[in-house]
Amino acid sequence: MRFNGTEGEAIELAKAAAWTANYRKAGAADTAKSHFFGTQIIQSLLEQEGCVGIRMYYALDDDRKKQLILIGVDESGNDLESGLVADRSVVCPPDCGTDGTLSR
């Protein structure tokens, strides 16, 4: 499969809220609801030569807590393994911000 950077699409907030609620109802309420990455690390990933997007891997850290690993991807769908790999997001909970529609 060839990637061109247009993959993915917008969805309505109501659908996103229903899906995040499904996740919590499925028994995931005691785990991470979300992960926050700042613009600097995301821009650094996207600015890598040949990068057309970002792939996110689910992971468990050494304490068995849910994490996301981000890596740039080229047009052939290959991870840019010789480039930047991102982790250390801000995890919700405990750092959830205000009570938004997706976190209720």
Q: Would you mind describing this structure in some detail?
A:
The protein is of the alpha+beta class. The chain has a domain at about 30-95. About 25% of the residues lie in helices and about 25% in strands. It contains two helices and five strands; from the N terminus they run H-E-H-E-E-E-E. The chain has helices at about 15-30, 40-45, and strands at about 35, 55-60, 65-75, 85, 90. It has a three-stranded antiparallel beta sheet with strand order 2-3-4, with helices on one face. The chain has a two-stranded antiparallel sheet with strand order 1-5. The longest helix has 16 residues, at about 15-30. The chain is globular. The relative contact order is 0.23. The mean pLDDT is about 90.
Task: For the structure shown, list the relevant keywords.
104 residues, alpha+beta, two-stranded antiparallel sheet, 2 helices, 5 strands, 23% helix, 23% strand, globular
